[in-house]
Amino acid sequence: GENVEQHPSTLSVQEGDSAVIKCTYSDSASNYFPWYKQELGKRPQLIIDIRSNVGEKKDQRIAVTLNKTAKHFSLHITETQPEDSAVYFCGGGSYIPTFGRGTSLIVHP
Amino acid sequence: DAGVIQSPRHEVTEMGQEVTLRCKPISGHDYLFWYRQTMMRGLELLIYFNNNVPIDDSGMPEDRFSAKMPNASFSTLKIQPSEPRDSAVYFCASSTRPHSNQPQHFGDGTRLSIL
User: Fold this and answer.
1) Per the CB < 8 Å rule, is A95 touching B106?
2) Number of C-alpha atoms within 13 angstroms, CB side, residue B39?
3) Minimum-distance CB partner of B42 among A43, A46, A102
4) B101 in A contact zone (CB under 8 Å)
């Protein structure tokens, strides 16, 4: 089955800085890569996803890049704000996504 | 749309007791997933259903765990007997056509504490 590794486990940035979270996957057949944001005590919510036929997707301050050759994908958050503080999960798979262990992002005002 | 509805939100019980978690998926979603979230293991897929039929239960930790989906709008996850190591947040999620890369929608979760 798919194995998704996510780094770092914790990321601390100052407000206004950029944040980058990286994930690698093992199954070359994987073609769908969602990213979920989970605020403390809340449900995971989809913030952006990318499919294998594109290399990059952007939505306002959030972007995701995918390198199929290297089997890694990344989440980029620019101009971070305190409300971006949460745990972010990456997922990868060709049918049912496997999730990474999560990255706790802390944005200091 | 009311989203995925889970109950109870919190459950505290003593070890050895039976625990039943409930989930109502989004109407029209024919896939339903049960996840367990812990600090140590992250978000683990326990089992998923398609059209009320269990497809993959390889993530169910042991025979103490069972899941059913008697109809398209209701599923249960049961633990009997419960143990302290079962303490976690249990999420239910639903989606349409994951093979066509449709995202999963999560419920608010059940925070389970086994004393």
Assistant:
1) no
2) 4
3) A102
4) yes
Return the exposure string of B57-68: e unless at least 16 CB atoms fall within 10 Å of the residue's CB, then b. Answer: eeebeeeebebe
Minimum distance, in Å, between the CA of residue A25 and any CA atom of chain B: 16
Spell out the long-range contacts of B63-67 with Cβ–Cβ below 8 A and sequence spacing 24 or more.
Answer: B67/B34
The residue with tokens 């449709």 is B102
Selection from B18, B10, B11 nearest residue B64 by Cα: B18
Residue A26: pLDDT over 70: yes
Q: Tokens for A23, please give them.
A: 């994930």
- Which comes out higher in pLDDT, residue B20 or B42? B20
DSSP string across B75-101: EEEEESS--GGG-EEEEEEEES-GGGT
Q: For B41-85, what is each residue's pLDDT tens digit?
A: 889 999 999 999 999 999 998 899 999 999 999 999 999 999 999
Confidence class for position B86, pLDDT limits 50, 70, 90: very high
For chain A, say whether B45 makes contact (Cβ under 8 Å).
Answer: yes
Confidence grade of residue A103 (pLDDT, cut at 50, 70, 90):
very high
